[in-house]
Amino acid sequence: MDCYIFLSFILGIPLLWPCHKAAENYKTEKVKQPVGSHLRVKRGWVWNHFFVPEEMNTTRHLIGRLRSDLDNGNNSFQYKLLGAGAGNIFDIDDNTGDIYANQKLDREEQSLYILRAQVIDTTTGRAVEPESEFVIRVLDINDNEPKFLDEPYEAMVPEMSPEGTFVIQVTASDADDPASGNNARLLYSLLQGQAYFSVEPTTGIIRVSSKMDRELQDEYWIIIQAKDMIGQHGALSGTASVLIKLSDINDNKPIFKDSFYRLTVSESAPAGKTIGKITAYDNDIGENAEMDYLIEDDDSQTFDIITDNETQEGIVTLKKEVDFEQQSHYSIRAKVRNRHVEEDLRNYHVEASSTFIKVQVEDVDEPPVFLFPYYVFQVFEGNPNGSFIGIVSAIDLDQRKSPIRYSITRSKVFSVHDNGTVINTDQLDREISAWYNLSVTATERDNVQQISSVPVYVQVLDINDHAPEFSQYYETYVCENAEYGQIIQTISAVDRDESVEDHHFYFNLSVEDTSNSSFIIIDNQGFIFFMLALKQRRKQTLFPEKSEEFRANIFRYDDEGGGEEDTEAFDMVELRHSATKREQKARKTTRFEIQSLHRQSLQVGPDSAVFRKFILEKLEEANTDPCAPPFDSLQTYAFEGTGSLAGSLSSLGSEVTEQDENFDYLNDLGPRFKRLAYIFGSSVQSNK
């Protein structure tokens, strides 16, 4: 069955036309759909949009009507409204299908509502047609004025900017619908500041309309207005304030406050001393007011001017010392100019401001002056007291030429005569002090207040007055089975005297030890290190048949590999963490005594007395033990500094029995321990 919907404005203007049924006779009739009606047909219902203006003055007003073509007017159909807003914002007449708005609608809060409608047959309680959606749109009216959201505005533009220079762009917003006529179309205008600025009506861009001088006025307040409806009658408006500041440009040159300055300087003033200040002013600010002063017409090159960066004053200084007797006054000219001037502003700085300065020199009694700024003397060590060192000389440059008296302060080694002769009063030893820094004072006899001093440097030259000395005390230990020619100690010597080249020493045994000694000394021709070697064997080994084997073991104990960085020679992990223990024959001294002494050495270090006692005890023990091999005399391996995680290779750290003695772990330490593993492995097999 066909159905229709009737929609109308509350103002009485038809919005949508009836369809499928003529309103007069309810007969089925196909009608042409009007252009722009946007009807949508769904299961006999024709749905579309309802439109209602916002801010309607009536509290309850009709929006439109829903009507089914099945409704014959016997009040058996009931219309229902569903969805957000149904029942509070909107309601429907159950019998007629008229839809009402119960309150004012604000498009800026919500512009559309989506509702659902349904028709129920009251006789059966069933829906005549499935429910469908429709939309109620709120139409915009011009009820919001433009607003400047970012006010107050502040901008800056350089002074003297030409007409049309961009200053700032301000923007207002209108909450009304921009698609609804001219409600949100804005125009900008100036209410204040038209003499210096202008605004583009549609963009809100503010521009300079005339040049402005910051030195006359440095900021301007303007008021800008925005109107909606493109300024037509009934338009709403909003205003904003804009603070425009003028930034400085360097359009002013510095000028001296005075055209003439008079300054004085004492002839005793040192170079660099300040003798006065001159001042210029600049109407610009900041970097544009920074200035530099310079001296002109000063052929003597006696004065200089520097700028105080804090006060921008010119500080006149003495470039070199003046002498009243030579020149009593000076006339100079100074100029001032800006430090930073842009190329396009140089026309403001064509001619620099200048001033004249007259400097008067004041006469004073000056101290004596030495002929040289410093003196350097040389003298050989060992010279007797009173020896001549050198001569210093000073003169009085004043007209009266006062006699001079000399003195040396704070020195017990040197003194000076009245004629300036420096002598020594004590013995000089270069090895104690090779240089002396003295200060000789010259005083005028006619005016003791006039004093000057000069540095004097005395170098003590060397003579060969010291014999060579051994660099340390040597206490050497050697195994009784050491082989002839074995190196047991390297010695060196020093000489306290100075030498142009490296020292060359010659070593030899004393006369009484030359003919009756078991040792010889070998001179290596010119280097400071020399060596001792065994001259003959002192004692036969207890095991001559094994001497060659054990000697080889002893000679290779110094092969320690390349250190921790040598990862090729052996496995460092095994060396550090191996927990393998070795056993050997029982000794008279228990292992716990050895470990106790080893712990003592790790705590206090290899003290020479403890070390010597330990060696002698172990040597005696080895000599009295017929079963001990010769290499056991090298029991100094117990002293290994701060200890090693790998343990010691010496028999001192071995177990007290020889059962199950195993040296196979030496094969895991790398190729450099291959020889040692072979020797110990052979020894174990022979013992078994």
UniProtKB/TrEMBL annotation:
InterPro entries for the chain: Cadherin (IPR039808), Cadherin-like_dom (IPR002126), Cadherin-like_sf (IPR015919), Cadherin_CS (IPR020894), Cadherin_Y-type_LIR (IPR000233), Catenin-bd_sf (IPR027397)
Keyword Signal (UniProt): yes
Lineage: superkingdom: Eukaryota
Keywords: Calcium, Cell adhesion, Cell membrane, Cleavage on pair of basic residues, Glycoprotein, Membrane, Metal-binding, Repeat, Signal, Transmembrane, Transmembrane helix
Chief place where the protein resides: membrane
CDD domains per the UniProt record, alphabetical: Cadherin_repeat (cd11304)
One term of GO molecular function: calcium ion binding
One Pfam family here: CADH_Y-type_LIR
Residues passing through the membrane, by range: none
Topological type in the membrane: Single-pass type I membrane protein
Chain's role: Cadherins are calcium-dependent cell adhesion proteins.
Entry protein name: Cadherin-19 isoform X2
Native species: Heterocephalus glaber
Gene responsible for this protein: Cdh19
